[in-house]
Each structure stands twice: as structure tokens, then as C-alpha cells.
């Protein structure tokens, strides 16, 4: 299994391979000592064993890194062949060194004298066993690293997906709001040009703040969101006058809590859109906080001519809250009041 995406922590793997060789050799030395077989030849044999394990482990490590292998067990055939051939070659070289230093185990020497081919058979068996052990070691060494890399990449992808979805949902709000704002401006131009000019200035400031914040923030403070909502309500007051009233009661203790950007304004806009109101029967929008829930409430006076709506505003808000909480939005629709509760984060 080839890997083209990740960097290999080769230095760390070399250090761990050294520890692996030392640990394995220490266990062999302990077994030899416990069996009462410790001798000068045994010390040579143990030293050679350490070097063989270390060299074979490092050679296999570099073979797999060079071939960009992620899973040694599932490596291509040519990698397995190179790994086995390397193990045979290393063991054969140390076998020659043992002969040169005359430190080979006497029992093995006697077997070889009877049939030289037995030496090659023994080397092959040793290479197979050692190569299998080293591949298992590399599997646990490398799989641990790549599991962490996969998990990290998965987390990054999930975060990127959530950010993309959230950005898309927020962008859906802007055209809807802008359409309503321009319709209001058009109406004011016909009635009062001075008031329309003042409204346009407020609208430009409002849009500047919202666009700047949308580029950098997923969440905003309650204080900033209330300020944006007040600006929006002030613009609507310029249009509807005494037919629209609002009350905002938010304690200072929750002003720094967080909520998704542009959460309150669509709720206010929803109340304006679906209710009939006049100077004699004004619409009063209340915004208050209770137990870390921000509540936007209004008395219902549904328009006789139904306003076309697909519910995208509330659904949009619930979808955006879904990135943070299982239930961040609660809708309470009674016979005379419409309340929407949003959880502060």
C-alpha cells in the first residue's frame, strides 16, 4: 500500500528501531544467561545478533520509505523480495564474519561440516524468521503513525466541510436581507427623500459591518449581534414609525457569550414579514434572555393575505446551529404569540 501524501518521521523511526534491537537482544541475552549458556562465544553471538537485528530493521525501514509504503504487510511483491534478500545478505555477511573470528557455535559448525548446504538452509530460515519479526515491528511502528495522520486529515476535512456549509448558509441570508432593504429604500424614496438618504447611510454602515464580520467570523458575541439588530430595527423604525416598537433586555453578564453570526436579524425580519401592524395596533418585538437562551418574541397578528414563505430563514438558522448543538433553536407558536429561543454558546 503506497503512500504519496504524508511525510515519514524517519529520525523517530530510527530511534525506535534502535530501542527495538536493544530490547530484543536483551531478551535473548537474558534467556541465554538463565539457561546457563553464557560464555565468551555467547557474548559475541549476542553482539552479532544485536547488529543483525538493527541493520535488518534499518534496511527494511529505508526500503519501505523509499518505496513510499504505508503498510509493510500489504507492500508490493518487489518490496517484500528486496526486504527478504536484504535479510539473507546481512545474515550471510555476519556468518562469514563469525567464521573469520572463529566464534561460530560449535554445534552449528559441526552441522555445516557434514553438509555445507545446511548452512544456506539455516541462513534462509533465520532470514525468514527475522524478516517476519521485523516486518511486524515496522507494521506497528508505521501503522501507529499513519492512523494518527488519517485521523488528523479526517478532522481537517470535517472542519473544512462544516466551515464550507456554514459559509454557504450564511451567504443565503445576505441576498434575502438585501432585497428587503432595497425594497424599503425604494418605498422611502417615494415618500420622503431626506429620510431615504438617512436610511441609505445607515444601510451602508450596516452592510459594511456585516460583510466585514462574515469574512472572518463563524460566531459572534451577543453584544455585537444585539448592536446589529438594533441598527436594523432603527432602519425599520424609519420606515414604519410608531407602528413598530421593540424592547431589548439583555443582562451584561451574557454580552460576551457567543452565537452564530446573523442569528437575531432574520427572526426580527420574520416578525415584520408575517404580521400586520399599524399605529393603532403596533407590532412590538421583544428580545430578552432567560437561562442562557435568547428569546425573540412578538404578538401574532397574522396578515389576512398570506405571505409566501418557504421557511428558509428559520431552517437556515437551525442548520447553522446544528454545527454546534443538537438543539440550539426552539420554536414556540401559540395562538397569540410567536417565540423563537436560541441557545447562547
Question: Which helices and strands appear, and what pairs or packs with what?
Answer:
Blueprint: H1 10-34, H2 40-66, H3 77-101, H4 106-114, H5 116-191, H6 193-216, E1 219-221, H7 222-240, E2 244-249, E3 258-260, H8 264-274, E4 283-290, E5 293-299, H9 312-321, E6 329-333, E7 337-343
Parallel strand pairs: 2-4
Antiparallel strand pairs: 1-3, 4-5, 5-7, 6-7
Helix pairs in contact: 1-2, 2-3, 2-5, 3-5, 4-5, 5-6, 5-9, 6-7
Task: Give an overview of the whole structure.
The protein is of the alpha+beta class and 345 residues long. Residues 1-5 have low confidence and may be disordered. α5 runs antiparallel to α6 (193-216) and α6 (193-216) runs antiparallel to α7 (222-240). It has a five-stranded mixed β-sheet with strand order 2-4-5-7-6, with helices on one face. It has nine helices and seven strands. It has helices at residues 10-34, 40-66, 77-101, 106-114, 116-191, 193-216, 222-240, 264-274, 312-321; strands spanning 219-221, 244-249, 258-260, 283-290, 293-299, 329-333, 337-343. β6 (329-333) and β7 form a beta hairpin.
Strand content: 5-15%
Strand order of the largest sheet: 2-4-5-7-6
Helical amount among residues, as a percent range? 55-70%
The radius of gyration over CA amounts to: 38 Å
**Mean residue pLDDT:** 78
Unreliable stretches covering 5 or more consecutive residues: 1-5
- How would you classify the helix and strand content by structural class? alpha+beta
